[in-house]
Amino acid sequence: MVLQNNLNDMKLIREDILSRTHENMKEIVSAGQGKEYSVHYVKNAFWEFL
């Protein structure tokens, strides 16, 4: 996952790219950064088990 501002950045380095895992998406949504990463909250009962 990359910040929306960095989508067209040709000099983006690997360290700036997050894997799109359930854990990372949950953290981003919990931190209120969903819009910056184009990740939207959808109730997911399975997150309770992670």
What keyword list fits this structure?
mainly alpha; 50 residues; 2 helices; single chain
Describe the structure.
This protein has helices at 22-30, 34-37. The chain has 2 helices and no strands. The model has no long low-confidence stretch (mean pLDDT 83). It has one domain (4-49). The longest helix has 9 residues, at 22-30. It has 50 residues and is mostly helical.
Q: What's the layout of helices and strands?
A:
Elements: H1 22-30, H2 34-37
What is shown here, in short?
By secondary structure, the chain is mainly alpha-helical. The chain has 2 helices and no strands.
User: Can you tell me the number of structural domains?
Assistant: 1
Shape category: elongated
Computed CA radius of gyration, to the nearest angstrom: 12 Å
**Given the helix and strand composition, which structural class is it?**
mainly alpha
Largest beta-sheet characterization: none
Distance between the termini: 19 Å
Annotation field: number of helices? 2
The low-confidence runs, each spanning 5 or more residues with pLDDT under 50, are none
Q: Report mean pLDDT, rounded to a whole number.
A: 83
How do the helices and strands follow one another from N- to C-terminus? Answer: HH
Strand content: under 5%
Total strands: the figure is 0
Helicity range of the residues? 25-40%
